[in-house]
Specification:
Blueprint: H1 2-36, H2 44-66, H3 74-78, H4 81-110, H5 112-117, H6 122-129, H7 146-167
Helix pairs in contact: 1-2, 1-7, 2-7, 4-7
């Protein structure tokens, strides 16, 4: 079940990353056309940057599922089959540690329990914690940056799910 959930989540991540890749292309084309007509749209650059950030994090998480991140394999190539399995397990364990650390730092950054205690009153939350993460606006788009930063929570969830699934051995005959 864990491997199935990981596989399905990775498919959603790839679909969404593909959407953002198309969006980036369209935004850049829009930017080129409007600049050529001397009628630039000021928010397009920021939207393209945020779309690229979302695309990168979604694709990176799906890459953890597929275990196909960019890597240097000189040490792995020198090892035998058993050594490669041990090294693969160590890499999966390090990825899980990385994902867990991201979850920890997100918890410290977003302070969800303090926000709940404040009754989702952002002003009260800010007054108690001096944390303005939920109030900071984007430069040109006009919405809160927390919506942009929420990709970190999605990435941390996906990376953790995929890392755990990679560490748990699959049963014989199970589809991947």
């Amino acid at each position: 079940m864990l491997h199935t959930l990981s596989r399905r989540w990775a498919r959603v991540e790839i679909f969404c990353a593909s959407f953002f890749a198309v969006l980036i292309t369209l935004l850049i084309l829009l930017n080129v056309v409007t600049r050529a007509m001397n009628a630039s749209i000021y928010w397009v650059d920021e939207a393209a940057i945020y779309a690229m950030v979302w695309m990168a994090f979604l694709a990176a998480s799906a890459g953890i599922h597929e275990r196909n991140a960019v890597s240097v394999t000189i040490v792995q190539d020198m090892l035998g089959a058993r050594g490669q399995r041990i090294l693969g397990f160590a890499v999966d364990l390090i990825v899980l540690l990385f994902a867990a650390l991201i979850l920890f730092f997100l918890w410290r950054w977003l302070l969800p329990l303090d926000l709940i205690r404040a009754g989702f009153d952002f002003e009260a939350f800010q007054g108690e914690t001096f944390n303005f993460v939920y109030a900071e606006p984007t430069t040109t788009l006009g919405f809160k940056k927390i919506w942009v930063w929420s990709i970190m929570v999605i990435f941390a969830f996906g990376a953790t799910l995929h890392a755990i699934a990679n560490l748990v051995p699959m049963r014989e005959g199970a589809l991947r």
